[in-house]
Amino acid sequence: MSRSTGILLPIFSLPSAYGIGGFGKEAYKFIDYLKANDRLYWQILPLNYPGYGDSPYNPISCLAGNPYFIDPEMLFESGLLTKCDLDSARLPDTGKVHYHLVYKTKQKCFRKAFTDFCQKRGESSLLEFLEREKEWLKPFSLFSYAKSAHSSLPWQKWQQEFRFYSNQVFEKIYRQKPEELLYPVFLQYIFQEQLSALKSYAVSQNIKIIGDLPLYAALESCDVWSQQELFDLDKNGYPNKVAGVPPDAFSETGQLWGNPLYNWSKMQEDNFTWWKTRLTKAFEFADYLRLDHFIGFVNFWAVDAKAKTAQVGEWLPGPSYAFFDAILNNFPAQNFIAEDLGILTDAVNAVRDHYGFPGMIILQFCFQDDKNDVLSFPENKIIYTGTHDNQTTTGWFLTNRAEGKPDNQFLVTYLHKTGFLLDGERLTPQNVATCLIKLAEASPCRIAIFPLQDILGLDNSTRINIPGTALGNWRWRLKSFDLS
Asked: What is the pTM of this model?
């Protein structure tokens, strides 16, 4: 990775007239903005189809893309929508994603585009795409149909015929209702088409994409339903233990994520093929991948599925070296970033360093005392002012002030000592984000990444996610694109 800087901005946070950011003209404008400001990297959040709580880290498919990123105007330009269709899909620009409204309006447009696509182009291109991606797309198509046919009930309560994936059931439903199985295929076809075009533009502008790979799948996901043997489930399809983390800086009771845990020994039997498929799909767009919750590959916090919080659990060993030895036969080690935040152990550090994965440093965590020297940080790190899980830097500063935390004073002292604040100059809500950005840029770390909110000096009303809270996150959007 070239030494440079980049910006963290989720796709859904881009402005658009359709209630959520997507792969349309504003994404291209953002690439132009990065290029004009000598930012080499665009870091995004996972592109997976989100599950409960609209979280991209709780996907209903680890391989299917989020169809709501599909841009209606590009469908119009392709002759699949009319001007009237576009107008009906427009939503008020409130600066937030209202997922229910987005789903309702875009699904109407997508159904219309699907009908026109089949009438004008026929189904052959969809069938070719389905055959090419059949290992994951057939299960996802049938999962989508069965979920609707069972009124969105959990898959554990579906009719016995649908309780497990089989090609025979897929073929039976396809003969009866081909359009219902082809509709999810159409959405993934268009998703891939628009994503590929955006990727080509990024390449033409020499902008590198840092993607993000969630560690876990959602219980109510196509992945768990279609390959139940790869997960730690009981005979009825419910998890024995679930994922989370013990109490930490984000939560006094820990974070109870609720995702089913992996049956790592079963995954190892075929040399982690499921993971290789995931990574192959992710690298179709991303140049680099952040491995979310890297710790979980070495050891993971297992909580009884009936527990109400993550306070009580146990650390269990992950696949560790066996996993990465297998993965790195297919993918270069230099294309991965270890999200090594949280409770680090010597074992976690040893695995990360053995493969040379760069870790992460969050500046907001560095001024709880006076022991950190940012200008002496190691080179093989990615430094951030904050991430999607943090407060904005302005919000962090104001929270420290309101709660009487010492972080602001430690930061002021360090900035004066290193010359980033001149004698008599004060640290304020208006300049704190700029100071941290300059400090990150001056560090020896290989890459410095800044949330766009910090570039713009925005407060906590624009925060992306509050860890440990299930609802109300992943909503902030830019209301306009005047970044000049």
From this structure: 0.96
